[in-house]
Amino acid sequence: MRGTGRKVTRKARADAADNHEHIIATAREAFAAEGVDLPMREIARRAGLGIATLYRHFPTRTDLISAALAGHVAACRADMQAALAEPDAWTALSGTIRQFAEHQIRAPGLNEALLGSHTAGDAFRDDRRAHAAALEQLIARAHQQRVLRRGTSVTDVRVGLMAISSLRPTQANRRPDAIRTLLGLLLAGLHSPDH
Predict the structure, then answer these.
(1) pLDDT of 17 above 50
(2) Distance (Å, rounded) from C-alpha 33 to C-alpha 64?
(3) CA nearest 148: which of 94, 190, 182?
(4) Single pTM value for the model
(5) Quick one: 12 exposed, middle or buried, by C-beta within 10 A (0-12, 13-18, 19+)?
C-alpha cells in the first residue's frame, strides 16, 4: 500500500509540475499577443484548468506575469550574449536591433510589461541594466570598426528602439509591416555610408 501511495504522490507532483509549466506557456503566449491585462480566468480557460488550480500555482497576477516574462527575458539575454560574441560589429548591432523589432511584433504585451511601468517588470531591472550596458558595448564596437554612422550616440539608437516599440498604426494587422519598414529606415540611417 505504501508503495502505491508514493507512486500517487510522485504522479501528483509530476502533474503539478506539468500544470505549472503549461500555465506559464499559456500565459506567455496570451500576454505576448494581448497584453498582461488579460483576466486570470481567461488564462485558466485557455490552459484548460480551473481558476483554483491557476491561483494555487500563481497566487497573484504579478506572480504569473513575472513567470511569463522570465522565459522572454532569458531569450533576450541569450540573443545579447550571441551578439556580444559576434566578431562583426555591424552584424552584431543590426542583429540586436532586428531581434528587438521582432520581439515587438511577436510579443508586444510582454515587452510592454517588461519595459513599461508594470510592477512585474521590476524583478528584471538588473537584466535591463545589463542589456543596456551590452548595447553600449555593441555601439562602441561599431564605431571602432567604422560601420556606424559617425556621430551616432547610444541615445540615438535608443530613440530608434523607442520609435519601434511605440509604433501603433491605425490598423493593428499593419503593425508588423510598419515595424519592419521603420526598422529598415533605422538601419539604413545608422549604417556608415562608407561601408
Answers:
(1) yes
(2) 16
(3) 190
(4) 0.83
(5) exposed
